[in-house]
Specification:
Blueprint lengths: L2 H81 L5 H82 L4 H14 L4 E5 L2 E2 L8 H8 L4 E2 L6 E3 L2 H4 L2
Length: about 240
């Protein structure tokens, strides 16, 4: 096979393999992007749920304190009723002191309830932000899914076109070269070929021998002894 023709075929094959590799990388990136944005949606939803749970807990705390207050107020009313039935000053003094202590406790409870209500309101104010984060994350996820689906269709079409081009180009290889080519592709995929870079392999940069260089110049296929790549002359060399 003439040098120019052999080099052109190898360059074409390498170009197709490189393009196919790039397309497959882009196709594989789609599901990863969807997974990443799905995780963001889940994180946003978890954040919203956390806020909702905090509101619920704060309300429960407020309800408990309000129940305690009602119980304390009922107790105070009962003690007030007992004052009129006291038979001794000592008994009256004891009840009076107890009522005073209970009223002080209810005052503390009232302050705690106000603080608890403020906490409920404060937490509730963060809920719209959490809701907005969920909506934004879902929107991005939806847009990403639509884009990946559209791009995926286009990319798959390109893959099929390149595969057809690859098969047609591979049929141009002589049987002996095809065997070398198949082994290189099996071992390294699209990286199984490399252009000659001066006197070195363009893949691993290991220097080739003079005989190997001469064989390339007369149209023979040369395998890099270091990395096993199939070497070909770059376009600038083959064109003179």
């Amino acid at each position: 096979m003439p040098t120019v023709v052999a080099s052109e075929i190898m360059r074409t094959l390498h170009r197709i393999h490189t393009q196919l590799s790039d397309l497959r990388t882009r196709i594989a990136a789609g599901p990863r992007q969807i997974a990443a944005y799905t995780a963001q949606v889940e994180a946003a939803e978890a954040g919203r749920t956390g806020v909702q749970e905090d509101v619920k807990k704060a309300k429960m705390t407020t309800d408990q304190k309000q129940l305690q207050l009602k119980t304390a107020e009922t107790k105070i009313r009962d003690l007030d009723a007992k004052l009129n039935a006291c038979k001794t000053n000592r008994e009256y003094q004891t009840l009076t002191e107890q009522i005073a202590a209970d009223k002080m406790a209810t005052k503390v409870l009232e302050d705690e309830i106000l603080e608890s209500l403020d906490r409920v309101d404060s937490i509730k104010k963060t809920l719209p932000t959490a809701e907005t984060a969920v909506e934004a994350a879902r929107k991005v996820l939806g847009e990403t899914k639509a884009r990946v689906a559209a791009e995926g269709t286009h990319l798959e079409t390109e893959v099929q076109r390149l595969r057809s081009e690859l098969e047609a180009t591979e049929r141009e290889l002589p049987a002996d070269i095809r065997d070398l080519y198949d082994r290189a592709i099996k071992q390294k995929g699209g990286e199984g070929m490399a252009p000659l870079d001066g006197d070195s392999c363009g893949g691993c940069y290991h220097q080739i021998t003079g005989n190997m260089h001469s064989e390339l110049l007369v149209g023979k296929v040369v395998m890099c002894r270091s990395c096993g790549r199939l070497l070909y002359l770059p376009e600038r060399t083959s064109s003179g």
